[in-house]
Amino acid sequence: MQNKTLFISPKDQKSGMPLVTLGVMELLKRRVGRVAFFKPLILDKKKDKDIDLILSHFKLKQNREDAGGLTLDEAINLLSQGEENLFYEKIIEKLNYLQKNFDFILCQGIAPQYVNSLFDYDINLKITKNIASPFMGVIKGENKSFETLREEIRLWFQTLKNEKITPFTFFVNKVTSLSKEEEEKLRSEYDIPIFFIPENIYLSKPSVIDVKSYLNLKALNEDLDENLLLKTIMQYKIAAMRIDHFLEHLEEGDFIITPGDRSDILLAALDSNEAKNFPSVSGILLTGGLEPEMSIKRLLRGMKYFKVPILKTEDDTYTAAMKATSIPTAIHIKNRRKIALAIGHFFDYVDTKKLRENIKCASSSIMTPAMFEFMIFEKARSKPMKIILPESDDERILFASEIILNRNLAKVYLLGEREEVLNKADSLGVDIKRASFINQNDEDLKKRLAKSFHKLRACKGVTYEKALDMMENPTYFATMLVYEGIVDGMVSGATHTTRETIKPALEIIKTKEGISRVSSVFFMCLDTRVLVYGDCAVNTNPNASQLAQIAISSADTAKEFSIEPIVAMLSYSSGDSGVGEDVEKVREATKIAKSLRPDLLIDGPMQYDTAIDPEVAKRKMPQSPVAGRATVFIFPDLNTGNNTYKAVQRSTGAIAIGPVLQGLRKPVNDLSRGCSVDDIVSTVAITAVQAQGVKK
Asked: Which of 126, 236, 537, 540 is the most exposed place for a label (fewest CB within 10 A)?
């Protein structure tokens, strides 16, 4: 999956994110055709200043609702219920839609002041990791020394590496105390660009419109020119003293906060704006819910220089001042001057040529577990197939069925009497009314399936009466439904053994043309990639010919699920270094597989570390097109494969999806008896995808 995204996120509060986002988007708009903006986490679906700013200023041709992911409340609700996979799936689903319709997406993380107290980890980094996006970080440099910034950059860079996130660039914004020599020294310590943007005092200050909108205030001025609200507030000034003392303390750009009954302060502030030898105020906030007397209002309306925004609040003076001074710095959507200043300041201090070159290489082929699951679900949803679940007496199957139906992953068919199954579902609070039901006691259907099974197995001595008895077995009955085309695939094993699931499939469905052996794979979902392990569940000790078929089937399965098949045939030695019966089996299997499928990248024998580690591969098998970059790992026997997948799963925290059966003409998959509801959902989705590829 090519990932056409960049994720930009702040490390600190008030780091000046809008400036950097505006600058990067300006650069993207110059270099890329269709660009979209996306915030995975937002506070409010209806209003988000960053989304409104970027979409409006750059006139992006995307729907506003597509620019926001989940609200913070929605995210907390999902994560608190343990629905982490669903949380990332919903974000990836929105992002995937944008990727299909745009050439590039700039993603922006949520400000840390909204989430730091809610999560014990950096939620922006977790999202970045799960969408496999290159990462741009914004660090506040205000009043920070060289050593402080050096340590912050080092720690953040290391955190990204530990999380397997690709650092793209760092912006150190609002720099106030670094020399050019210190900046160059910090740059030289990393292999990614680091840009230092000095503080611009006018960008660091709020405007009157920020106070008005953030505190939801009204202006008393009638027909106030909106441009007056764009005045920059240089500092807040509480005015409660005599006029003469007030005027002595007045400074350029003051925002005056005063009780609403202090008409003297109000008139003096207005007069100061008109006087050439006095500073001009940016605005006035009247507190205590008080307004000037009618005579004062009449006087104001008659003043030709009544051009200062006058706002009103119900709060007392102290509370109003505290609220005003806590307003975060913002670049308001209507403040074109400030937007232009921000973009100009960005381009003054950022080497845009170097940044442009890096953006060309910003695509990523990383596949995270969340992305892989989303890809499977997306494929399943594209053409819902009919999947039979014969174990409807298991509560987990009912819970999973509801999820599958709600997500439209498949058309669920449950084996059982409709009213009986629905009553059990109702008692669990599960809604599966949209499922289809097949009654195993339907005599006409049972006879039809028995007749067909008898025809299939008569050569093995199965009589019609025996076939009719076999249809009492739910797994045989369901497998015959697949064979007859009544359904497209089957998932079983929640209450049955692997043998009870696979044996009917081998007898009834049988193997694909050219394949004599049913085998299995596990999808091993690591932090940043998905590997395919085969065979770890079915074949105990395959011979060379069977091992070659397992390799080919596993490669085809990988391709079916958008994983480029690069197949490593594993052994205890690499290349020509080893001898012995076991390694010779793998060597012969490799030759057979290559001759049968010259279109595939297959090589072996090789050790696991040679297959996966590029550095080891350079030493042991430097000429191999597979070594160091394998995606499909074929184990020589069940003992090795089963132990390896479990060791990797337990030691790395990898998610193991499977076993997924392969080689059958129609899909049948086995669950473990300890499976979770999520396991069932994933397996049904995988089975549905496999069913889509069956030739009718």
From this structure: 540
CB neighbour list of residue 186: distance below 8 Å, 6 or more residues apart: 146, 149, 150, 153, 172, 178, 194, 196
Checking if the pLDDT of 374 tops 80, the result is no
5-202+338-365 CATH: 3.40.50.300
Q: Is 138 helix (H, G, I), strand (E, B) or coil?
A: strand
Q: Do domains 208-328 and 367-510+664-696 have the same CATH topology?
A: no
Q: Does domain 367-510+664-696 have CATH number 3.10.100.10?
A: no
User: Residue 178, Cα to own-chain centre: how many angstroms?
Assistant: 36
- Phi, psi at 406, each rounded to 5°: -65, -35
Tell me the domain boundaries of the chain: 5-202+338-365, 208-328, 367-510+664-696, 515-663
Helix 84-101 to helix 369-382 angle (10° resolution) is 70
Across-strand partners of 105?
A: 5, 36
597: CB partners within 8 A, 6+ apart? 552, 555
Longest dimension (CA), the chain: 113
Tokens of 486: 């009544």
Q: How many residues does the chain have?
A: 696
> Residue 20: enclosing H or E segment and its boundaries?
helix 17-31
pLDDT tens digits, 25-54: 988 887 776 889 999 999 988 888 899 999
User: Do the beta carbons of residue 437 and residue 417 sit within 8 Å?
Assistant: yes
Q: Can you spell out the DSSP letters for 504-564? A: HHHHHT-BPTT----EEEEEEE-SS-EEEEE-SSS-SS--HHHHHHHHHHHHHHHHHTT--
pTM value > 0.85: no
Residue 631: C-alpha distances to residues 353, 368, 610, 634 (Å): 36, 14, 12, 10
> Can you name the residues that pair with 219 across neighbouring β-strands?
311
Burial of 439 (C-beta count, 10 Å sphere; 0-12/13-18/19+): middle
CA 160/CA 156 separation, integer angstroms: 6
- Distance in angstroms (rounded) separating the CA atoms of residues 696 and 693: 9
pLDDT tens readout for residues 151-195: 999 999 999 988 888 888 999 999 998 999 999 999 999 888 999
| CATH T-level assignment (fold) for domain 208-328 | 3.40.1390
Q: How far is CA 227 from the centre of its chain?
A: 40
Own/partner pairs, 429-435, CB within 8 angstroms, 24+ separation? 430/398, 430/399, 430/401, 430/402, 431/402, 432/398, 432/401, 432/402, 432/405, 434/405, 435/401, 435/405
Class (C level, CATH) for 515-663: alpha beta
Answer for the pair 620, 635: CB distance below 8 angstroms, yes or no. no
Q: How many CB atoms lie within 10 A of CB 443?
A: 9
Is-contact 654 477, C-beta < 8 A?
Answer: no
How many CB atoms are closer than 10 A to CB 247?
18
Distance CA 538, CA 670 (A): 11
Q: Which two tokens stand for residue 11?
A: 């490390």
